[in-house]
Specification:
The complex is a heterodimer of chains A (112) and B (156). Helices cover 54% and strands 0% of the residues of chain A. Chain A has 112 residues and is an all-alpha fold. Chain A has a domain at 41-110: Cytochrome c-like domain (Cytochrome Bc1 Complex, Chain D, domain 2), CATH 1.10.760. In chain A, helix 2 (41-51) packs across helix 5 and helix 4 crosses helix 5 (96-110). Chain B has 6 helices and no strands. In chain B, helix 2 runs antiparallel to helix 5 (125-142) and helix 4 (93-117) packs antiparallel against helix 5 (125-142). Chain B is globular, with a radius of gyration of 17 Å. Classes of the chains: A mainly alpha (112), B mainly alpha (156). Chains A and B meet through helix 1 and helix 2 of A and helix 1, helix 3, helix 4 and helix 6 of B.
Chain lengths: 112, 156
Amino acid sequence: MGRLWRPVLVGAAIVVMTFLLAQWVPFEPSTTATATADGDVTRGELVFERECAACHGAAGEGGAGPRLVGSGLDADTVAETIRQGAGIMPPGLVTGQDEADVVAYVVSIATP
Amino acid sequence: MPLADVNETYTDLMTAVFSSTIAAKAWLATAAVVLALVQVTTASRMYGKLAFLRFGGSWVAPVHRWSGRLAFLCTLPVFFHCVTILGFQTPGARVAVHGLAGTFVYGVFAAKVLIVRDRALPGWALPAAGITMASTLGLIWATSSLWYFTTVELGF
C-alpha cells in the first residue's frame, strides 16, 4: 500500500505539467501567421471554434445560428453583424484582433 | 520551423485525410475509446471476469498490450492539438469538463503504467487504475467526439 505513492505522485506531476502546458499554449497561432490584410484566417478559426461554433456549427455549417459556409458574406457585413449583433447573437461577441481574425475566417468559408 | 507554422502544418496533415482538424480529432478519439474498450474487455478476461464472453488463451494478453499501445498513439495527435494549439479554455460546461478530463488523462496513464510494473502493489490497484483510465477517456470522448457526431456531423 505504501508503494502506491510513487505512481500517484508521478501521475499528479504529469497532470500539473499538462495544465501548465495548456496554459502556455506554445503553438497558439500568432496574429502574424498567414495574416490577411485585416485578420488571420488560421487564428480566426480557433476563435470561431471557441466563440461562434456553438450556434453557427463547428465548421460554420449552421445550427441555432445561420449557415455561414458558402453564404457569400463579405468582410464589411460580417464585421458589422459582429459589432451590432443579430437575433440571439449579442453585439461585440468578439472584439479587436479576435474580431478581425474571425471576420477573415468567416469570409474564407463564406466564399461560394 | 517557426512556431506559427506548427498549426498550419498540423492542419495540412489532418486535412489530407479528414475534412477538418476537429473531424480528425473526433475520429482519433473514437478509435482510442474503442481500443480502451478492448483493453477493459481483455483485462476482465485475464482476471477471470466476463466469463460469458467465452474467449481466452495466450492471445488475450498481447491483444491487451497492443490495444493499449495503439490507443495511446491515437491520443497523441489529439492531445498535441488540444494542449499546445488550443490550450485550456472554459467557455462553457462541456469544454470545461473536457479540458479538465484531458488534463488528467496522461497523468492517469502514467500512473497505470507504473502500477502495471509494480507487482508488490495491492491487487485492486491495477483494476482501479484501468477503470479510471477508461473512464477518463470515455468522459473526454463524450464531451468532444460524441458532441461533434451528434451536433455537427457524423462524417469524416
